[in-house]
Sequence to fold (239 residues):
Amino acid sequence: MSRKPLVGITPDINDIAAPETEYVVRRNYADAVLYAGGIPVILPFGADVNAYLERIDGLLVTGGMFDIDPQLYRQTARKPYIMKPERTAFEKALIEGARAKNIPVLGICNGMQLLAVCLGGELIQDIPSEIEGAFEHKPAQSATITQHDVEIVSHSRHLSLSSGTTYVVNSVHHQSVLSSEGYDVLAVSPDSVVEALEAVDGGFAVGVQWHPEYGASQIDMAVWSGFLTAAQQYSSRAR
Fold:
């Protein structure tokens, strides 16, 4: 019987002062991994990411209500942003280390944006002010409710998706990814916002801008299935 893959999940931290600071991560991230056939483990922030990378079979970089420092993608901040440098540095080191070892990486929302940065891409810092005619990508509604269409625009090496297919997804973001040579754009919304990407080479490295952990869209299971299949394959090769 094959061993279930171990998936490391990056948490956030709340703003309670030490020593009461807590790691926080929504349950549905872990539940989605469990449902798709993996074993989720939360990865506390630490300098030695190699200790994690030696044990996990997949890396899930979660979303969060904060922004990546624009200096990391060769830009200057155009307005004040809430940033979490400790978390971003930790996740960046994990992504880069996982890529070096061909450990599958799935980035969700902010996690997709950081994956893009690690692959050499840049970000649109604020969709409403930088994309003319863009619709609302951060609506005042629960992420259990779908918000807009995304169209699959290119073939994926790892996800079972058909080009030209359209899905309705949820949306909770105000920034987005620019095209780059380091990754293929897999999906876009009707207002041209990049909604999914995949590294052009190496192992599984996929980012989605929506939140598949809610299971609100028909595309979500394809994301989890592709990720866990890759993690299972990595586990089988590594051990």
In short: The chain has a mean pLDDT of 95. Residues 6-238 form a domain with the Rossmann fold fold (CATH 3.40.50.880).
